[in-house]
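does this look right to u?? zinc ion version
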Amino acid sequence: MLKALPRLLLGIAAILAVIALAFLVYPPALQSAYALLQQDNNPRPPVTIARGVHWVGASDVASYLIETEHGVILIDGGYASTAPQIIANIEALGFEMSDVRFILNTHAHFDHAAGLAALSAASGAPVYASAADAVQLRQGGANDFYLRNFWRYPPVEVERELIDGEQVTLGGVTLTAHLTPGHTKGCTSWTFPVTMHDGRVAQALIICSLSTLTFDLVDNPDYPEIAADFARTYDTLQSLPCEVFLGAHGNWFDIEGKRARIANGELDAFYDPNGCRAYLAQSRAEFEAALARQQN
Ligand SMILES: [Zn+2]
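got this back:
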């Protein structure tokens, strides 16, 4: 019995080593395990946010489909394992992948960009992104200032690099790119007009991300201007119209609550300017507190 114990421990160590090696050789395995733990990647049916604007993402990681007169626009690709869910949701809405004309991205992290290569391949649609995040997308998330090389994903080509304020137009719909760096160096938020179910036109905002994770906000050699970027990003977002409050993660704007309200017949549940204002104010206060802590 005593002799068998070290052998048992050795066996367990060997199994753990094999698992660790599997994650190193094949990072999507780590991302899938992470998604499972986070519960943000469970399949969900699409939700219609406004006329012709749909959530086609998973339980929490976002993906948006915008209908136009000349095909559809897709925003964000989730994890690698979210891509099949997004395709199923697009088809459930009655579209084909070949209807996708171009694909946009909020930011080049594994939970929003790992599915882009598969979605671009399935549709033949090009990806447009900010210049700074295009660097990350093309190298599959490598050398991120914070995630380093731990959360890589299939690289994806970026056909068009967008600058701050640039507009992309398709079939009568125009989206405006707003560079809101900090979470990534090229983090991009999007505004566009939508028509609510009651007929009124409202302004939608997709927030890239304001999460500071455990970033060094002070004396960060990999991103010296990070605190100034975040401050400017808050100024930008708080000056933009935000009547339909959206973002790269559904929990920021209570996707599950709004999904339930829509199911109860409250079709314009996503019209939420107060929720958007409150979220930005709260998030800014948290950022400023984190910065103050690090400066002391
Ligand atoms: Zn992120």
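The chain has one domain: 42-295. idk if thats expected tbh
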